[in-house]
Design brief:
This protein is of the alpha+beta class. The chain has helices spanning about 5-20, 70-80, 105-140, 145-180; strands spanning about 40, 45, 50-60, 60-65, 90, 95-100.
Length: about 180
């Protein structure tokens, strides 16, 4: 496995983690929490942002205006079925999501969720490292690389792993700070 292949995979893991963090609401309205929601549109599951305009008119509100008014009920049901924990308000033209101030208990819950996402990402990074290490051993057995090459490659791999783990810790710390700031 070429070096850039495993670094790409590790970087992708960080991008997935950032995406997961974006879905954790920190008391402020953030349209990205709706990214995972899909609605049935002409028999096809379609991303919410592909059938409606999503705006944040103020820090605590998301406004969803479907291009096709017949989708209002469908969007409302999809939001209720999702895990965002906010009841949509439908006025016949737009759907509003009002984000309440987070309670201390909810903040701690979300902090645990963030830590779990961070741990999952670390496990993914370590799994990538393990797979690449195994590959190096196979290459060594087949005499495709020398023992010295193997040691150098393993050190580079470990350095890359350590750096990504530090990046994950930093991302988790920043998200926790965001959640716990009132």
């Amino acid at each position: 496995m070429a070096e850039n292949n495993y670094t790409e995979k590790m970087q992708k893991t960080l991008e997935v983690l950032a995406g997961e963090f974006a879905t954790v609401r920190a008391g402020r309205a953030n349209a990205s929490i709706l990214d995972r929601i899909t609605v049935e549109y002409y028999g096809t599951p379609t991303a919410l942002n592909a059938v409606a305009t999503i705006a944040t008119p103020d820090p605590r509100t998301i406004m969803i205006q479907p291009w096709d008014a017949t989708l209002l009920k469908t969007i409302e049901k999809a939001i209720q079925a999702s895990d965002i924990g906010i009841n949509p308000q439908n006025d016949g033209k737009v759907i509003r999501l009002a984000f309440p101030q987070l309670t201390e208990e909810r903040r701690k819950e979300l902090t645990k969720k963030v830590k779990k996402y961070g741990e999952d990402a670390k496990v993914a990074i370590r799994n990538i490292r393990r797979d690449v290490m195994d590959e190096f051993k196979v290459q060594r057995k087949k005499s495709e690389i020398t023992e010295d090459d193997q040691k150098v490659l393993e050190k580079e791999l470990q350095d890359a792993t350590d750096k990504k783990i530090k990046d994950i810790d930093k991302m988790v710390e920043e998200k926790e700070k965001e959640l716990l700031s009132i």
